[in-house]
Batch of 4 targets.
Target 1
Amino acid sequence: MAFIGGMLGAPLIYRLFIELPAIQIDAHYGVLIAAGLIVGVGTRFGSGCTSGHGVCGLSRRSPRSLVATITFMAAGFAAIYAVRHILIY
Amino acid sequence: MSIFTALLSGLIFGLGLILSGMANPAKVLGFLDLAGNWDPSLMFVMGGAIGVASIGFAVAARRKVTPAGEPIKMPTARQIDRPLIVGALLFGIGWGLAGFCPGPALVALGMLEPKALVFVLAMLAGMGLFEWNSRRQIKSAT
């Protein structure tokens, strides 16, 4: 919980030193809800995310994490490809 | 992990995500969109993070406790099973749709972005759904 507190507080601390970079969220609310739901289920089911498998797992040379990272990267590439180049929104 | 170490780690992690652009979904999607105007820079963020974390994990592998005296626990799962693949697939699709993964979404929430709040709430609901489902399966198995 304190770790999450640190992450939530990071923008506050950052702003003390330099201006926060602008972030841009293009996805509509419906897409955000759907994406959030499957990210929540997927990260629990697959036991990790970009930092869990991608950074920590690969740093430990975990074969499970390598497979997971390749899988979610491929799925991410495919999802945005479908949205931007097939469905076009 | 002591509260102080956890807070500090979360803070450093969050600062890194902001500075590197990982907390900006438009940038993340620019990286994932190979067929568009591809921006490969986040690859170096991940590569750099793995480089630094590898040193930490190599040190951790030789120790039993952290410098603060807490026991070090490492994941023990070994099999590459269906939940791992299905979970990674679902997570990847969500990541590619919104440009958010859990860490950056929390940082963006700290920036008071309403859309980040919606994403984080949906993500928590998704995690809750997983919990509910796994509890139900344990119950029906006994």
Target 2
Amino acid sequence: MSSLPAAATPRRFGVAGTSRLGPLGVICAVVIAVLAAVAVFAPYLAPHDPNALDLLHTFAGPSPEHLLGTDDTGRDLLSRLIAGSRTSLLGPLLVVLLSVALAVPLAIASAWRRGPVDATVSRFLDVLFAFPGVLLAILAIAMFGAGLPAAIVALGLAHLPYIARVTRAAALRERELPYVDALRVHGFSSFEICWRHLLPNLAPLIVAQATVSFGYVMVDLAAISFLGLGVQPPSADWGVMVASGEPAILGGHPQQSLYAGILIVITVCAFTILGERLADPDRAPAG
Amino acid sequence: MRTVSFLAGRLAGLAATLLVMSFIVYGALYVAPGSPISVITGGRPLPPQTIAAINAEYGFDKPFLLRYLQWLGNALHGDFGQSIVFRQNVSTLIASRVGTTAFLVVYAAALIIVFGVVLGMASALRKGQADTAILATTTVGIATPSFVAAIVMISVFTLGLHWFPAIGAGTGFTDRLWHLTMPAVALALAGTAYVARLTRSATNEELDREHVDTARGRGIPEPLVIRRHVLRNAMIPITTVGGLTVAGLIAGSVVVENAFALNGLGSYLVTSVEQKDFPVVQAIALLLVAAFVVVNTIVDALYGLIDPRVRVAGGAR
């Protein structure tokens, strides 16, 4: 294999890669790691039962007992935010995994075969592209009823073209490189070249795009839950918490909505910045 | 000649996309589990004659393709059938709500175009601290969902300062402008940040080009270089992405209308989904998607008219 011409050096992740992310990129990666840890260990971290009512202490301010206070039914806000991190992060993760699983094989196949296959796939992507994600999700919910599953499948389809376009363009460039011809001459099958060589070389780009998409998907999914069509109360979810805290804002208790909203903004920021850094560490805006 | 065939091609593409969209919208609810009759009857057991009568009235007994074509034909005449919940014409129910949504979207679009482009240019041309500040703000802006912006603004401007009302769409132009200012800002926030980012990078890219150096070398005054050589070229990507961002507002209005309790199309769509009022869901979904696709096509065509290279390449394909 060493005699084969080298492909464009793939970007490596890990310790050596962190310097390329810049300080802000590293901070974002740390924020995401902490959020993921909180979501995984949520039941052990939450100081109270997130659904335990305490009607004697509604809208309580911050205290040692309730660090962030309580909501309109006396539930501990901190515990609810911690418990809510699970659906709030798991939902977008499933959407992105679904998009990638569908988009990458489609994009590589269409770039590899070109011709009519490519033309058909491109038309299909154009149509999907022309359907706003949130509307597709609402339509799916109208079909199958409120809840996360319908929204996840619909948003997975809606975000498919973004990942597919980036992957297809990169695959078209990659297949023209000399190492692909060399592999062909050596008698490797198309599938083997795509799976063992093309895909690993495209992986960093796909990961970067998926990271950016995660941020946007999170906004969409939280919006669906905010509308009352996604995660159903009393389940704790950041989007649901923003919505259920809204009536109390004009009564002077904006805490629940604000805390959940701020968490959404921080998470989305972390994912979009990290995604941009991963995609293009040299050209991403400094800051 | 080329321009005409270019525009004709885009129009044909628009018609084809709209046809596919209408099929998806109608077909999606057709395959939905649970028969529409159970929604109408509320699950009560009814004599077979009554069910047959309902079937005939709503046309449930006809084959799918026929029903789709009939629905599409009627929709083209502005007839979307009867609301199952309100027993009124869907078009009447919708018509009273179009105004609020249209006002909101146009207002937000104006905000995006003005503030997005101005902030982006300031960021690229000023550099230094202004650039860093605008970059930081836009990064947070892009990541802020409209409903989070909504609750923050309600907390600050309604609860704290009593400047703007938190709900309702108002009557008359100025009252409406006042009522819809916070919703429009919430809707426009992410788009403004995005367009500012794009304007910044497009302007910076153009500033680095050789033709700008040449113009400066020829002794052309800097303001003229910026106006004629930098901004004019930078406008090409700004028009496209700005247009697409504005088209995205149409879907985004659904969320903002709910956050501010506005009686527009979007909030009615969500209510109708909850009530399983399928004729209304189909009508609003079709309207919003059609508006989105039409705006997209206009942007696409504009792009071709601004930049002749697209037209020529498109014709050669």
Target 3
Amino acid sequence: MQYLFVFVVLAGVLLFVTAPLRRASSAEPSLADANLAELEAAREAKYRELSDADLDHRTGKLSDDDYEEIDRTLRGEAITIMHDIDRATIDPQ
Amino acid sequence: MALIGRALLLIALGTAGFGIWASIYGVRNGRREWVDAGRRSVYALAALATIAFVILEDAFWRNDFSFNVVANHSSTTTPAFYKLAAAWSSQEGSLLLWVFLLSLWSSLMLFLVRKRAREVTPYATAVLLGFAAFFTSLAAFWANPFSTSSTPPSEGAGLDPLLLHPTMMIHPPMLYSGYTLLTIPFAFAVGALVTGRLGAEWISLTRRFALAAWLFLGIGILLGALWSYTELGWGGYWAWDPVENAALMPWLCITAFIHSIMIQEKRGMLKVWNVSLVLGAGTLSILGTFLVRSGILDSIHAFGASTLGIPFVILIAVMVMGSIGLILWRREELRSDARLESLLSREAVFLFQNLVLVGMVFVIFWVTFFPLISQALTGTKVSVGPPAFRPFIVPLALILVALSGIGPIIAWRRVTVANLRRNFALPVAAGLVTLFVLLFLPGGPRSRPFALIMFALAAFVLTSVAQELWRGVAARRAMTHDPVPVALVGLVRRNRRRYGGYTVHAGLAVLLVGVAASSSFQHSNDVILKPGQSASVDGYAIRYVRPVETISSQKIGFGAVLDVTKGGKHVTTVTTVRNFYPSQNPNDGLIGKFFDTSNADSEVGLDQNLRRNIWTVINAQPTPLASLINKGNNVFAAYAPQVMTKAAKLPPAQAQAAMNTLWEYRDAAVSEIAHRFVTNPWPTEFLLIVAPLVSWIWIGALIIGLGGLIALWPVPSFARRRAQAPSPARPPAPPSPPATPPRLPVREPV
Amino acid sequence: MDPSRKRAIRLTVALTAAVLLASALVYVSFTAGNKEFTASQLLTKGKAGQTYELAGTVLSGSVQRDGTTLLFRIRDPKLPVSVPVSYKGIVPDPFAAGRAVMVAVEKGAAGTTYIGQGNSLTTKCPSKYQAAAAS
């Protein structure tokens, strides 16, 4: 009985683990997809920075002048990333 | 069932090996299906480890003493809760727990990121399976939890009485969760280095797991300290023991990482530093696992030498060499994108904080391993105890607390002097007022300058956090007009990382106030008392009212009721007991085995409030009963064989009845002897301690945990506001930013 | 100031602080530490008035109490010798005959007494990771 259980478990593991190998292979994500994911993560990080700078300004840690400058810089950096995302989406090569 | 367990370990090992190969083959040859097979290997490993663990727990539950590990660490009299937890009190069970937790956390991580980081994840999968294969092979071939005996004993050895404490049963799973969670950022850092994908993505993927590792490891460390304080008979919560330090070092490392990744996310700086921290924390977690079971350092926790030292040393060497090699290989890609603009900036504060934390790790590592270092350098082992830590850790801790107050109130990139004045005025004032009040307070802490500074810095930190919360709520209310509580919840909800972090800082300040006060202003007295006699500690009179005894099938306890008064007024009454657990050594005798002092623990008599703790422990010894015990041993040594010989000739039911009568006589004799502690009490040793603000340590730890949970909780997806964002279908705009920035996401309430 | 000069100054300050910390650590370790000796090493090499970390196993049958003073002998791991220790302070719960212990001791002037330093006694937890050792 114990041997049977072990056999069943082993068979189950083999079937489960090798299931992807028996399916039709899906398209391999390209380098461009990986680059796009990287850019999107950078964009999210930049949005968080913008939000943090805004909160810093509202809570008095940044003067108006400093905030304007930092916000301008961050938005510029965000635009650059978004342009890169656009380029990566349109022309993955 | 043991056979199934052993087979599962072997299948798990094979699955891990296949998964490593499939992941690397798949990613290197662009074969997605092999990568998926590698990921499924992790899921399968989790299932196998779960079944194996359930089999082991079932064996403990059923008192199946054919399992050696059950026979050596449990007994029929072990309470049910501790039976289930006894599984990981052994080398074998703890290795299986490691595999179980590692496979669970790895499965969770890989499921969450299954559609992301497709280049990095397969390498991370291979590394995680590598760890799993290592621990599974140790369990399968060196310390098998499913090894059995063909002649199982009728009764097990039982759990070490010191482990019969709730915190001690949760402490290992928490610690191991922390250790295994640390392998995840480690694995993804390796994957990022191998693929060269060292941008924002691997950081965003692993940050949450790093935080979870920090939280669990912190809980494990706290539970260990709580157990030490309430269970061990020395009245302290931290001994700078090597195994305590082994858990603290990776925790400090990952604390540094959690802060410094924010700098990398925002400024693209400290890339080498961050990967080094993550790789270092992962390596230190394996080192910690190794220290407990190798016996290379003398520690109250080091459970003696085992044969597992060499495999661990090899693994640690591979991790260290591999980490250094990968970082050197990728040093070009790890160059910073920006430089530190100003020392008056949050980046600079985080950097200083990192240096302080790493400095602490270095100090702890050096002093902990100094016996081995000195032996290697001079041929003689030199031990340095806790006094070697304090000259370094105390000043570094003070700097850390100061920085934890500065960080929240200083902005990123740079600040102006005017802003510094505005943000620092109130917290600095609070710190200075606290300092001066305590300095001139009658009976105040001015005799302990470090404690005094810590109290002042704590006031600074708490004020800075409160100021931040207040201003954040005000800013939110300015936009939403919500009531204060609603605004507060909304503020924290939308900025969990920030305010979770601030909460942690506040908790740290509270905790370190407790540590500073209790360690600097503790009073203790080690006395011998007879019933009716008193001793005084820090103005409290502690009177030994009467002795008490507790007798059960599990243990015999000799205790005392102590009455505490101050200035003639009753303060509290506490009871402390020393418990003796039956030994399994036949040489102790049928009576003497119940008075075995080598198998004892203490129940502390504790009265605690926010202001002070009164901690008492009795060190009752059965020495005056020695002649009675010996007499009992002799009587039963003569009587028992006669009964057993007669019983052997009787039918089973009558034989059992005869044996039961024997044991009833024995139990009556043991009770009668133990009762002498109450009827003829003898002078007994007590350790009495009065320490202020100990409760603040646990309260601070709870606040830290709460802050960690807040920071860890999933954030609502940052709203994709498409109204003004450029559409991806349009041709790409010129790369340089326009003079007037286009409108980006509309500012939402903070 | 030129940014690269600023960076050089910051790096120099940081490295200097690190070197100072490391030097202080090394100094304190070597001066504040006690040599770890076994019983046989203490008997042959121990100097009167010096403090050593004595590591070994508590000899069976040697444990006695005299008021708050704990008297016991620590056996050498390899040789059939032991040293007597007189100790006052916190005694860990796992302390018992046959257990591995470590205690800081000062060798008395006469060379025959060893005074355990207060609260320096540590006992190894009974081993769960190896078979019970003979005591």
Target 4
Amino acid sequence: MKSGRGENFIWPVRSVHFKPTNITLMKKLLIIVSFIAVAGCQKKLLDTAPYNAASSATMWTTDGLTDQGVTGVYQAMRLSIATGGASGNELYQLDRYAFTGQGRDLDALLGGTITSSSGLFSANWQQLYEGVKRANDAISNIPLKSPSAAAKKARYVAECKFLRAYYYSRLNQLFRGVPLYLENVDVSGATKPRETEDKIWDAVIADLTDAINESNLPLKYTSADAGNGHVTKGAAYALRGKVYMYKQQWANAAADFQKVKDAGYKLFTGSYKDCFTLANEKSDEMIFSIQNINQDGYGSTTQFYCGTRSSFGSCWNTYLVSPNGVDMFENIDGTKFNWDAIIPGYNAMAPAKREVYFLRDNMTTAEVTAAAARGLDMSLYLPVGNEARVKAAYENRDPRLKANVITPYSTYLGRPINGVDQTFTSRWPARDENPPTSDLFTDTKSQFFYLYRKFVYEGSTQLISRVTGPIDLPVIRYADVALMWAEAINEQGFSTTAVDLVNTVRARAGVALLNSSPTTTVTGQADLRERIRNERRMEFMNEGISFFDELRWKTWKDKVFYPGNGVKQVWGANVNTYTWQGDYIYNWAVPASEIQINTKLTQNTGWLN
Amino acid sequence: MLLAVPAFLFSQTKTVTGTVTDETSGPLQGISVTIKGTTTGTQTDANGKFSISVSTGAKLVLSAVNFETTELAVGNQSVVAVSLKSKSGSLNDVVVVGYATQKKVNLTGSVSSITASDLSGRPVTNVSSALAGLSSGVFVRQSSGKPGSDGGTIRIRGVGTLNNSDPLVVIDGIIGSMDAVNPDDIQSMSILKDAASASIYGSQAANGVILITTKKGSKNKTTVTYNGIASSTAPSGKIQFVTNYAQHMGLINESSVNLGQSVLFPQARIDEWKAAAANPDGKNAIGVPNWLAYPNTDWSSWIFHHKTAQNHNISLSGGNEKVTYLLSANYQNNPGIVDHTTTEKYQFRANIEAKINKVITVGTQTFASLQTYGLANTDNVYNFLSQTTPGVYPYYDGKYGYPSATEENQLANNIQAYLDGTGGRDEQTRINTTLYSILNLYKGLSFEAKVNYQTRFEETNTHALPINKWDFNTNILRVAATTPDLLTTSYSFNKDYRVTLDGVLRYNTKIGKDHDFGALAGYDEFYFNYYDFNASKLGLIDYSITTLGSAGNTANNAGGQQYDRAVRSLFGRINYAYKNKYLLEANLRYDGSSRFSGANRWGYFPSVSAGWKVSEEDFFAPFKDKIRNLKLRGSWGKLGNFGATNNGSANDYAYQAVYSAVNYSFNGIAAAGLRQGSIANPLLQWENTTQTNIGLEATIFRSLNVELDWYNRQTDGILTTPPVPLVLGTASAPIQNTAAVLNRGVEVTLGWSKRIGQFNLSLSGNFAYNRNTVTGYKGKLVEGYSTDASGNKVYTSNIGAASNNGTNTLIVEDHTINEYFMQTLYKGNGSYANTDGSVNINGGPKTGMIRTAEDLNWVKSMIAAGYKFLPVGSTALPANKSLLNYGDFIYADNNKDGIYGNSFDRKFTGTSSTPKYNFGFSANLAWKGIDFSMLWAGSAGMQYYWNDSYNTTTTRNGFGVTKLVADNHYFYNEANPTDPANNTNGKYPRLKYNTDAQNTTSSTFWLYNASYIKLKNLQIGYTLPNRYASKALITRARIYLSAENLFTITSYPGLDPEIGPSIGYPTLKQYAAGVTLTF
């Protein structure tokens, strides 16, 4: 269809050879030229159609287009991915607002300078509504236009209802009450006011209930099933259970989590660390994930923004681990970790002075001079043994610490130098990235941070570029369900059932179980509540869950914005300090531009337009 | 069928040859020789000779700029000699207008013309950038000096629309691109400014039309002309960075201390650099000289070089009675001023015309070019300049430098490594060929048919080159060259082509003595198609083996797209002149475009114009010796704009909703996805421009030409993409026919020329004023206080709904397009407290900046009293200085709601980045063989908002600090009020490390007056006397010196006001020497 158009048009010209002296030929040419000018018109000339895209007239009208349209609804989960610099909006990136994470650069929301016109608010709002819009399109048009089999259509509608529920739940977690569009509107129709937070939860529950009631939606896919990666009933139960947590309908939540277990989902039986590998991304633990593969445009960015200069692809440590998170990991026997037990007097020291304990062995004279100039008490420095002393702090800890974090003087298998993948060691100060020294290099060479190990790839063979991480990012996994389940039970009243659920997670992690020793003995509902919260903080590092937890528990101010907290180097000295703008920031601001364009929207209390 | 028309209708013809000289018997080149009453004609060659075949009894009309038009009756003679009198003014010039030519004196529309001589001797490689200052109402801005991308942006009579504002470029009757014409090939250019002149081009002419006519062959003896020019290039402006690394480190430290954070660079490091700078030739511990081990790199000096550009053109012109030809070849080499930005260009043209018999003439204009581009990644060379520090040494002994100080950001760029880091080839080819035939069917009746095919394609092969980086201080290899297996090789190809068919029937006749009629009818259609393809593969066998086929298979990428459009048109024109005094013209064009749905596709574009040559009236006779010519003219017409640039990608299918591909995967396998990529608007239509023009032309005292024009240009239904609510998602917003814009302006052109003895002097000036107002968009802006349902006084504004919601600029009714709209600095009265001790709400700092302890206390008291200072002062100020503090701006509470600097406090400034005034001035002086000329161009009445990484007080580690800021910013050491470093009168706010929400808020502080006047060209030439030249078989030889962009008078502190508020590849300052030889 396309190719004929241009060619018909020009063939007469191509057939002519121009020789000015050949009069006969010239006459022929003239006939042709005149003919084209007068009669060469093509009726279809002005009816052009796009080459790169399907038009709205044909969308949804074939089985293939139906498949692709539904895939598009899933893809909205990837909208926040930016490959030229972190968007700040990806799930794992939001953990910079959590207790366990921090950002390399001071974020405006943490620094107390954010306003309602921040791109953080508008980008999240717009991208989540894009997901809603795609789901609405599919839910409305598949029944009307698609020729696919009835069972498939029903399954697709159920999947899209789950996805719509997911996008609305994210909106509601952040903005608390948003406009509700369940059908697509044109430009002039986008004028709805906000619904209450509770009304949105009800709409989310309604969609999830529809999905659960759809007989064509499977309970669970096996890892071999081609459908793996699509929504299941198990996922719908898990998400609905989470929504009941927000509504504090604990019994409903617990019932749904039971259904998730009944569907066959369970904790991955290998180690915590192995849970987050390509080989196990489809284990029974993974209930619903954002799918990634090692292909340009299809992968994750965790390598790029959580890795280092020494990671394959030369990466940026845009997102970091907070020392708060590191210090909360218990000793392996379940006792609380205490720096003073490793280095007496550590806790009482001014944080900046503690740097001396993190210095590498055998510092050069210049390094010693510089360290002294920074105000360090070099009498505390052990030219041989300084590394060993501090390394002890990270030994015999909850194994999840080492699975999640590159701690000082631990090694990391990184990018190739001279054609060979190198094992780098995190040392302070870093001197030389080249072998044989192989110091781990970051892009913050003048500062020493805890770095993420989770979702940062080892060596150079697992991915083709720093933005094609192949490991799926779990949105809901069974550990999340188990701990929410424990929470739902505990909120109804203290019960050992809840303790047992927490212990399933601790057992897999390899840390002492609750009630296995005096320090791990749970003393009651409030104690268990706190233990569950800490368990979640440790379990879900860098997964984009913790920040939302702090918002739900209303613990964000106390845990993250406590006086003096900020972006910290490993020894706890601040690089930046956080500022709490006011309790109103628990509810994100409705984007200023959105309120300006739709005056029916009201701003969340406290935010200025 | 057409050939069946009787062919031999003319009486017998013969060839007349002649010589045309000036009053001093010097031969005149380029004199137009036409047969009276026809459009047939030729030109004199370099020897002043011409040859033309005429029928007996016909009259020849000889005309040229600066000479009196002379008529010559052809009797029996076959050789003639004519001496032309020089004159002032250009009344009898023949001007090319749409699909025809016309005498300037008979024009009823507003047309400017530019001749080859206006462009000669300029070391410019692009026609567009040479046009600045030459014509009133034509504004040219060269926004980049990068070789190959140095074309100017042209605006005719202001900005009339919100989308594509480029004028339509028509080369030899065919829509084309200004990049696709060699300046040396141009015979003349006409700029059609009003609707009456342009409406024959209908739906694409709303931004004006530029007609380019290329040279033709002459029927005389063959001439060969060589034109060569070589120029030394340098940047016409530079942004200065702090190059002393010790100072740079101090500034970074200052900025983090200002936020209460620890310093980045220990004092020891700074002292180390200071000591090394005092002893640059000393050696460090491992024997590296200090200048290398402790760099203080001035990157702007390092990156920008003086280079030599050259341009050679040779043309061959000749012919006989039957066939004339012009062949030209051109070579350009412009190395730019930055490494690896060289462009080389070869251009060829063949204009051949053959007269087959008395009826039929056929010909071609064929152009081809080949251009290669440098591969250095310099789209924003200054971007790299700001993203590095003086602490990196560029390149030494085959090694690239790496940041030497431990604390320095490891990402600080080595710009030289960037420039050197890409290998491969980027090559663009253009072919543009027209075949035409003219049939002289009957006396005064002719038919012209054209077919044109033009294509442009560009192939790029690139691959990364291995770069290693060394820390010279420790002599350690920091970044080893990437091994070939990890390098990528890429190929990309893009191509467009356009096919145009065009047929025009013309008729001219004279009825009786007094009635001149002309009529024209035509058909035109074109089809345009673009597509591209790109692929890349990872993993080379070796650095030198870079073909796609030889690369590995781990990471393959391929992409491509295609789009097309077509327009079909019918058009016509009628001219009538009575007694050559009263002139009337009417045009109509009927266009259909593929960019609109079938129902909205077709549009009519009519125009009428009239002229009155007052000076031809009898009653005017008494004044005729003073005012030789006086003409009044007026026009009205409608034009269209469909929103697409000539070749650029645009929304060709905006009336259809499209679903485009997205990437997702299931179970480890890529799955194709679709999502709605754009919101459709099936009601889309042209935007319409209605323009009225009133003009006056006069020649006073034979030497002063005056041309005045007033116009009113109303554009309605402008195609814009107003923002839509975010709940509609990420699909691109629909294009809609929304805004209306009124442009009103005045243009004045004055020309004066005089011959005084041996001196020929001519001066010319032009001036244009344009005022632009949005007359319709999304309703009136309504803002102010009202009382809500519960009785509270509330401030409301519909600014979001009534405007495009821009950040710094707005499109809103009753204001200039993209008028600046931003916060203003607070101006207190300098007192602080009322007599009762409460805070004085009218008090506080006078200058908009917190400079003193009293200022800061006033702010704190205000916050305590419930006032808020946005964006960061809405809560009590913490001790850590990260929020409002010394050296910060505070913004005015313009709506008096107690919140200083919220969105309701933004104000319109009455200005935009578009100039209100544009002007040009040229002077030409000739004395014997010496000629001198200069050209000035300027613009005034615009402001630029400049607060980017070159003009900011926000520092970042690894980024440079500009001297403007370093030398004049606020600093106050609270701990030591007598610190000599304190500068509480600094113009710029305090430095902050990484982020600064307060001072980067868009405010009028960052607005600058960008008015300028530039000496675009200065030229002095010498033409060798014939007696010397002829000895070398040269008929004419001119040598000249020329300087381009010599200097700019402006108060704008940025790079160059001409290139606009953004910083890009600087324009070139050039000193050139050239020679023109005619054999």
